[in-house]
Amino acid sequence: MNKIILIGNLTRDPESSSTQGGVNFTRFNIAVNRPFTNAAGERVADYFDIICWRQLAERCAKYLFKGSKVGINGSVQRRQYEDRDGIKRTSFDVVADEVEFLTPRSNGGREGGAQSGYTPEEPHPISDMQVVENDDLPF
Predict the structure, then answer these.
(1) 3-class SS at 76?
(2) Do residues 51 and 38 lie in contact, with contact meaning Cβ atoms separated by under 8 Å?
(3) Taking Cα atoms as reference points, which of 64, 48, 51, 3 lies closest to residue 24?
(4) Where do the DSSP E strands lie in the chain?
(5) 72 vs 60: CA distance, rounded Å
(6) How far apart are CA 53 and CA 74, in angstroms?
(7) Residue-wise pLDDT tens for the chain (139 aa)?
(8) Which of 79, 67, 73, 58 has the alpha carbon at shortest distance from 16?
(9) What is the pTM of this model?
(10) Which candidate, 92, 19, 28, places its Cα nearest to that of 61?
(11) How far apart, in whole angstroms, are the C-alpha atoms of residue 29 and residue 83?
């Protein structure tokens, strides 16, 4: 089983691109604080490279920004590549199946004064949800 769950903050704005076949993807990095301090009494963080695909990639690129708190549910994938100097390298990426946006809307201040990744003129991602009464549920 290959499953990973992380909660952390973006270390920089997401970067979007697409494959040669036209499939959208977005990459970002998150810092996850360890639950303890080191010998010097300082908090230590681990850093994870995250990649998401298709519609999830589009939503992350649109609504996330440096400092956003996210919950990630996904798997770890090993990637091998050759760097600019011709040296073979290995890296590990977290392929996100789900990304939960955890930064409150009222808290979202980008550097430079922009609001949390969307403007009031745009519909919020959950604005089209409807209230469902318990009597309407099939279970």
Answers:
(1) strand
(2) no
(3) 51
(4) 4-10, 15-18, 24-37, 43-53, 69-82, 88-101
(5) 11
(6) 12
(7) 999 999 999 999 999 999 999 999 999 999 999 999 999 999 999 999 999 999 999 999 999 999 999 999 999 999 999 999 999 999 999 999 999 999 887 665 554 333 344 444 445 455 555 566 666 666 5
(8) 58
(9) 0.72
(10) 28
(11) 19
C-alpha span between 42 and 100 (Å, rounded): 28
For tokens 């890296």, name the residue. Answer: 91
Rounded to whole angstroms, the Cα distance separating 124 from 117 reads 10
| H/E element, 62 | helix 54-63
Alpha-carbon span 107 to 58, nearest angstrom = 22
Decide if 65 contacts 13 (C-beta within 8 A): yes
